[in-house]
Amino acid sequence: MRIEYDIKLGFKDVMIRPKRSTLKSRAQVNLDREFKFLNSKASWMGVPIMAANMDTVGTFEMALALMEHCVFTVIHKHYSVAEWNQFLSKAPQGIENFIAISTGTGSKDAEKLKHVLTENPFLKFICIDVANGYSEHFVSFVQNTRNLYPDKVIIAGNVVTGEMVEELLLSGADIIKVGIGPGSVCTTRVKTGVGYPQLSAIIECADAAHGLGGQIISDGGCATPGDVAKAFGAGADFVMLGGMLAGHDESGGELIEKNGEKFKQFYGMSSATAMEKHVGGVAEYRASEGKTVEVPYRGKVIQTIHDILGGIRSTCTYVGAQRLKELTKRTTFIRVAEQENRIYTK
């Protein structure tokens, strides 16, 4: 046993200090990023925000809506091969640049991935997604997937430390998903005692990834557009959103009406709700590590996307970053004890 005494920070612990700027308007800010990936050697351009691969967020309908704004969707792993084929037969041209197919690390997962990619070889992105990215089995699965699909862009996670980011990149991944426990419907930290404050995880993992020429995704912990901006400021190449994109027409989840108000169900993928839906219940050797909540129904996702992108553009004008790429270099975080005046907050 040992204790690390270095301070580790989350989004609520900091704000971004403003700096002189020559920008006259938010409209001058360019949020597009262009990346060339380490192992696949593929290139990508777009707005580096991702809808999470939860079945109450990362749906085919969400992908079609977000693609209109060059925003990415990591599709949840519970669609069948037939559903993938049907969707792709009708989807707009270019959708392959803004979606990833998700997979676990079991033999059935690998077989389904093979079928989808065999029938739809134009798909470019694979997300190998597990809650605990520290197992040797996971690293081996990443290596095998790279060998099978040398030209695909491989996203792998989740981890929160630099040495594991480096190992996964050297094992064939292109982009590493960073975050253990920060999600709004994740209970891993209270069920297991394991986790890492998200801002510090981003800073440390980005440093490791960029040293090798890889990229990271900040996955979880964002509740406001300001949090998304902080994630980018800390060095995240992509930011993945779950709860912020839940509750919309394009989100999955049951629509519920209570006392004349509408809600949509939103749950973590390790919750009892998800496991009962997809695998018949919580196995006796494990515990549920996710919540099931009802979020207010919010209509079309377009307004939420405009709000998020507008917030990030505003951040950039406050620090003088004309391009999103410049935000990290222009960011100085200050420690704070409070974020906002909450007197009129319900």
From TrEMBL:
Keyword annotations of the record: Metal-binding, NADP, Oxidoreductase, Potassium
Domain of life, source organism: Bacteria
CDD domains: IMPDH
UniProt-annotated catalytic positions: 186
UniProt binding sites for NADP(+): 108-131, 216-239
InterPro entries associated with the record: Aldolase_TIM, GMP_reductase, GMPR, IMP_DH/GMP_Rdtase_CS, IMP_DH_GMPRt
Ranges of residues in domain IMP dehydrogenase/GMP reductase: 9-338
Recorded catalytic activity of this chain's protein: IMP + NH4(+) + NADP(+) = GMP + NADPH + 2 H(+)
Residues noted as binding K(+) in the record, renumbered to the chain: 181, 183
Enzyme Commission designation: 1.7.1.7
A GO molecular-function descriptor: GMP reductase activity
Xref: NCBIfam families: GMP_reduct_1 (TIGR01305), PRK05096.1 (NF003470)
Function as written in the Swiss-Prot or TrEMBL entry: Catalyzes the irreversible NADPH-dependent deamination of GMP to IMP. It functions in the conversion of nucleobase, nucleoside and nucleotide derivatives of G to A nucleotides, and in maintaining the intracellular balance of A and G nucleotides.
Family: Belongs to the IMPDH/GMPR family. GuaC type 1 subfamily.
PANTHER family to which the protein is assigned, alphabetical: GMP REDUCTASE (PTHR43170)
HAMAP family: GMP_reduct_type1
Quaternary structure (record): Homotetramer.
Protein name: GMP reductase
